[in-house]
Amino acid sequence: MKKFILTIIVIAFTNLSFGQKSSHDLKIFLNDNSNIIDVRDVLQFEGIEYMNLEFAGTELKNKSYQLTVKEIWNGKVKSETVVFDSKSIGIEEFSKVNDTILNLKVISKLTNHNKLKMTFKFPSFSFTKEYDAIELNEYSLRNLARESKLEIEYGKKFYLLAYILPYKREDGSKSWCEVGSNGKDIENWGLKYGIEHYLLFEMLFE
Fold it and tell me: What gap in Å lies between CA 148 and CA 141, rounded to an integer?
């Protein structure tokens, strides 16, 4: 529970929005619009993580968008699947971004059946996915674009989120930030940090 309290305070309810640098004007902001104490207390109690992201760019309008996930177990990519592809919707008004801003809310938690349940909410629709997990209530949803200061641009996949277990230091303490801030060789975190399992999400605008 302490981990979830720390994660939500640091990630979901910070008083500062952030922008990520890009040579192609595409930026990501973390919106702060949930400072209601009662709501925060309920999320902490239920072990729910919440992230409200905003993509912004002068060239974002009319771009399609895709979200993919890699499931990494014991340092190896066991699967790579498409979470969502706007081109597959079949409704033109939803298949492309219709403004220079696109909002995405992510709500997630570890269920009692050892599943990472995640809901992705776009402005006009939402969907929920579940992924296998281990029986350890220490998963943390990290914003890689912010923590690792990754440069993002149109037409190329970029790392967006990671749902990770902690890195165990030699003194027995655990860290999520130390892993999330290391933007290099992200797919090999499992080997480098001894992390048994994590999900790695990538986003693409084209």
Answer: 14
Q: Measure the CA angle with vertex 46, ends 18 and 32; round to 5°.
A: 20
Q: How far apart are CA 13 and CA 82, in angstroms?
A: 29
Q: By C-alpha distance, which of 181, 104, 198, 184 is closest to 144? A: 181
Rounded to whole angstroms, the Cα distance separating 2 from 17 reads 24
Nearest to 130 by CA among 193, 85, 71: 71
pTM given for the model: 0.83
What is the tens place of the pLDDT at every residue in 62-82? Answer: 999 999 999 999 999 999 999
**Euclidean distance between CA atoms 11 and 31, whole angstroms:** 10
Q: 26 and 57 in contact (C-beta within 8 Å)?
A: yes
- Cα 31 to Cα 29: distance, rounded to the nearest angstrom: 6
Confidence of residue 202 (pLDDT cuts 50, 70, 90): very high
Closest by alpha carbon to 79, among 90, 94, 69? Answer: 69
Kindly write down the DSSP assignment for every residue of 19-49, as one continuous string.
----TTS-EEEE------HHHHHHHHHHT-E
Please tell me the distance from the alpha carbon of residue 114 to that of residue 202, in angstroms, as a whole number: 23
Is residue 5 within 8 A of residue 44, CB to CB? The reply is yes
List, for residues 49-58, the tens digit of each pLDDT value: 999 999 999 9
CB 71 within 8 A of CB 132: yes
